[in-house]
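Researcher: Good morning. I'm working through a list of sequences from a screen, and I'd like to move beyond sequence-only analysis. For each chain I'm collecting a predicted structure so we can compare shapes side by side. This is the next one on the list. No need for commentary yet; just the structure.
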Amino acid sequence: MRMAQEEVPPPHPDVRIPPPLLHLGGILVGYGVDQALHWQLPRFPGDRILALVLAGFAVLLLAAALLEFIRHRTTLMPHRAARTLITHGVFRLTRNPIYLAFALLNLACALTLASPGMLIMLVAVIWVMQTHVIAAEEQFHQQRFGADWQRYRQKVRRWI
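Model: Good morning. Structure tokens for this chain:
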């Protein structure tokens, strides 16, 4: 007679693609599409200033998130288990400030280079981030942090 086995939670989130590489890949593929099809977005007054503002905000958001990881002595790597659920600082505004910063940097690159390919790929990258990376992390956080995760999840939006 076989006994039912309890499902053992994974020791870390099942993130298969490092998010920085996913975003970089989207930028490169988008740029390649632009070059192959000779695509370019029309320029508009202030497009580079907007790109600079977006990039600056992204860097500040990223730095603030990194400081929280250091302060809480937990891992930044999405394929490793978090030791602590961070709910302070920029994590009070968004559950994924680093991924939001990556998306803003990606958008800033697309504006700077007037790249429709990068914009199209940004949509694809965000979809993959949402359905694979963030979904895996949230499933892990639910198992690891239980009720604390649920309260945090109900209070703070995933993106913005």
